[in-house]
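ok so I'm stuck.
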Amino acid sequence: MGRDDKKPPELYYEILHVARDASPQRVRAAYRSLARQWHPDKHPPESRADAEARFKAITEAYEALLDQQENRAVFAAAARDGGGGRASRPPAENVAATAVARSEKKPGGALPCAPPAARAKQVYSACGGRRAFAEFSSYVVRKAPPLERRVECTLEELCTGCRKEVTYTRDVVTKNGLITKKEVTQTIRIKPGMRKGSTVTVEGAGDERPGCLAGDAVFVVSERRHGRFKRLGDDLVLRARVPLVSALTGWHLSFRLLCGDRFRCAFRDEVIFPGYVKVVKGGGMPVAGGEDKGVRGDLVVKFEVVFPDSLTDEQRKGLADILRGCA
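replied:
not stuck anymore, here's the structure
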């Protein structure tokens, strides 16, 4: 069931992040917490419009649920006064009058100072009307579509993590309700081990639309091709070319890892043959989002033996004499 199919109370509870069976005390506590969080005075000018929209929605939802709970108390009292048997429902005008009277007693209540049209609208909402809610919900639940931007990172940046400043253009709504382009800069955090296609979302930093909450800015990580390493999941693959003589007689391999440390490996008692693979445990990329910090993938070194293009007769004879006894 989508938002538009929900009954008004369901949306009110969702706005305040409380369950349908929440007590008045729980509703009041949720309202106070959200009101403090989204009060416009606590937000910078660039996000104040979003804060005002959220603050208005939270206040509307709280007042509607408070009126609803008070109406239940009115009906319960009327049922008790009506005696045994089926409870008689009080006339609608009595319920409306009670709702208005109770609203006037609330601290900061808006009814006494509101114009007649506003009072009629609020009384209609307190009595279970849908017209005011339709206007309210259509404003609250809409949000501009997300704005996607690509962020290119090197393997070194994805390995160690970094902060990237991204400059992009977004739509903003002027005071006159017109949409204009504005260039903004956001600093986003790239966590160690993030992969190509990972996203970083900044709430409310996307495009603005009249009558809507600002959309989110979604930054999609892309990976710049590396000159030495190739990434496969959390593993790194390195291809090393070895001359034939070194593959047979011994070889020393040395290079820098992405983190900056130097890796050294000596092959003295091993013969490196075509397709030879050496796996260095923990020498790959950090595992992003893993339960155990410090877990890394593997470094896979794949060796390619480089054969000479030609040999002299003397070289052939010498190799034959040397290798004749080898299996």
